Amino acid sequence: MKKLFVATVALAAGLSANAASADITVYTAGPAKLIENLSVGFTAKTGIKVDVFQATTGKVMARLEAEAANPVADVVISASWDTATTMAEEGKLLPYTSPNAAHVPDFLKTDTAVAQGISALAIAWNPASGLPKPTDWEDLAAPAYKDMVTLPDPAKSGSMFELVAALDGALGAKIFDDLSANGAIIAGANADALNPVMQGAKAAVFGAVDYISMAAAAKGESVEVIFPASGTVIAARPAMILQSAKQPEEAKQFIDYMLSEEGQEMVAATYLMPARTDVAAKRPRIDELKLLAFDQAAAYGARAETLKAFAKSFGN
Amino acid sequence: MRGQGGTAQGVLTALALALLSVIVAAPFLFILAQAIFPKIGAGSFAGPFSAMADVLGSGQLPRATLNTLIMGVGTVAVSAALAVPLAAIRALYRLPGAALWDLVFLVPFMIPPYIATLGWVMTGQPRGYLEQLTGQNIAGLLFSVPGIVIILGLHCFPVVYFALSRSFATIGGRFADVSRVFGAGPLRAFWRVTLPLALPGLAASLILVFAMAIEEYGTPAVLGTRIGFRVLVTGIDEAIGDWPVDLPGAATLALVLVGLATVAYLAQRRFVAKGGFETTGARPLSATRRPLGQATVPALLLFACVAFVSTGVPLLAVLATALAKTVSGGLAPGNLGLQNFAAVFAAGSSAREALVTSLSLGLVAALATGALGAFSAFVVVRTRARGRVAVDLLAALPNAAPGVVVALGMILLWNQPWWPVTPYNTLSILVLAYVLLLLPQPVRYTTAALAQIAPSLDAAARVAGASELAMARRILLPLIFPHLMVAMLLVFVVAARELVASLLILPVGHQTIATYIWRQFDQGSVGLGMAMALVTIGLTTLLPLAVLVAARRTEDIG
């Protein structure tokens, strides 16, 4: 009993003595492998340690808001450009332009944020489903796809929300009524929508995050990424330094490293489009994709209404 | 003498109140403050009640509350229907392989509900494992409200099974024997004597199941989303997971949940207070179990069926997914391999780190929660000090705190700039969160155990000249320890795999088992996540088992 007590005290002491000894703290959206590689590479190069909190964009933002009175993070990387716009308006971001951002196109950087990489939304289709290969969004509302389509929840996926807003403008909300009438289901976040398609329970994801599906296909899953003919939306992933950063200089070095050729190659390895145009991508780039017209400010201004109308289409 | 005892009781009660105030009450107060003052995170008291009004004004609240009640009551019904017959057979009859069945029924509790749900989805959906094997799928049942409560019931029933088989065994066949001497048939004896005497244990465990069910997130999130079945917890998750974040809205919904569980708890208290249930007399009990006779085979079949559905199916689904090279490849032999397990155990892998972190956290949390829980239960049941009702209430409060909101409370409390030292951003914040989340377990187990110990034992000890402390240490502690140990094992298991709170307050640079698994799912590496899940299920089953075996051996020697 006494030994157990001593062991417990020792263990408890060990647990509380772990206080972060790292130099910078990064809050980031997935993929986990990317931030792992970036951290290891950055530490090797600079000797500065990186402590990571990785979660979905929503959870990263929740943590930032809860910590508003005593912020911890130095760098934030989210999967939704809107977060960069909002936080800049609130004065929470430290202006910085990395020298390595010279090769990043202007629309992917502001005074306070720069893209790490870019994803696009697509149709993820299982060729083993035996159903005709879709070429456009509306094909998934056709009778052949009755009960065989999943959609990520736009309330949980920022990029899916942007697709819904853009399609509302381009095709009208009728596409979602048609999908719903055809038995399509809302399946939670991005991975929840893709999983049933990989197993074959469903045949296609309407609005799959492309790089996750491409990585799955590279692993041998029966999934094919199709960019619809009428166009899609992209989601640039902003990297930002917080105004409250305790290590702003080291944070800037991290942004520099992320935008270095080495860092951008790590981004490309995850099947994201690298932000720099001079680093090769393993997949189609923005200029090879057809994009839907999308007014970000207007879309986010009407976010609640858009989500409500979407939910109504699906009978919720 | 009475005055002296009163003072000691007062001191103990004050100490319990102080501990519970910091660990339990303070985070709740900060959640309350967040619900009332939306801007308090930035240190402002502007716009009181504005966020609450928004949430209450939207039509979502009544529906989410009703759905939460349906989920809670449904899960209780499924758990009771499964556990009562099994526990009765286990406790009152000589069941072949009894200890083995106990072990088997620990497993469903060891499978995190969101993992079990995913396993069921992989099995039951069209082209799932079941269809690959038999050509049939159960998607219709799976993606429905009955599907949700059945899966939750299959996860929760062991709580009732273990509590009840202990109560039944404590009551023993003795009282039933007496009634049978007076001419009652075996069923009548069970129905009129054994079951009523076990009601405190049954009620306590069913309330626990209700509280577990209404705060469950994974299962309604995975299955409910598709059928528009939204509960309070998924509403809270959406309020937090959505950008823009709505912490005040989440806190308000959490207050409704806390309200629900408080009502349930008070109902249980009234119910327990009505019946006298002291069954551990001053004389030691010899447990007499009857032979099952001709009923042996049907009884074994019943145990095997429940074990297969609650344990076999999800475990096999997890195993199949962990072994599969690709999800698309299914159960084809060429698609199976150990590559996911190799990745988990690779030297220096983050999976290994996560395992060590979580198991250490689980151990510390179990000991801390057990100590605080037993202490609180003792104060509630064995003292007459005025503060004991407050202790009771505080110790029960965490029952309806979804992990996600506990985490918010911890952040709101411990991340204030004015603390000179704070556990925030160290692993100790996770221990605090786990203690807060799981405190009801040891409290309920030891309360039920203490309530079944007749005060005549105290009196006997006093007559023999023992002090109050000596009485607690030499008589009560040994009597409640088996119950307390089971509760601590439960805490260990749940803490070692806790997901939602861990995700939000995870200190930077660390991973727990659950956050690791969750990240794999989030990244689409389902197989790697399931391999880690299987390793975890194995460890969290075998470690407590080793403790139980060691304890039994000590008992035999003693």
How much of the residues of chain A is beta strand, in percent?
A: 15-25%
Indicate the CATH class of the largest domain in chain A: Alpha Beta
Q: What's the CATH H-level superfamily name of the largest domain in chain B?
A: MetI-like
CATH architecture tag of the largest domain in chain A: 3-Layer(aba) Sandwich
H and E order of chain A: HEHEHEHEEHHEHEHEEHHEHH
Shape of chain A: globular
Structural class of chain B: mainly alpha
Rg of chain A computed from alpha carbons, rounded to a whole number of angstroms: 21 Å
CATH topology value of the largest domain in chain B: MetI-like fold
Q: How many structural domains in the coordinates of chain A?
A: 2
Strand runs of chain B, count? 2
By secondary-structure content and strand pairing, the structural class of chain A works out as: alpha/beta
Morphology of chain B = globular
The separation of the N and C termini of chain A measures 56 Å
CATH superfamily of the largest domain in chain A: Periplasmic binding protein-like II
| Tally of distinct domains of chain B | 2
Relative helix content of chain A: 25-40%
- Tell me the radius of gyration of chain B: 24 Å
Number of strands of chain A: 10
Largest sheet composition of chain B: 2 strands, parallel
GO molecular function, one term (chain A): metal ion binding
Keywords (chain A): Iron, Metal-binding, Signal
Protein name (chain A): Iron(III) transport system substrate-binding protein
Binding site for Fe cation (chain A): 211
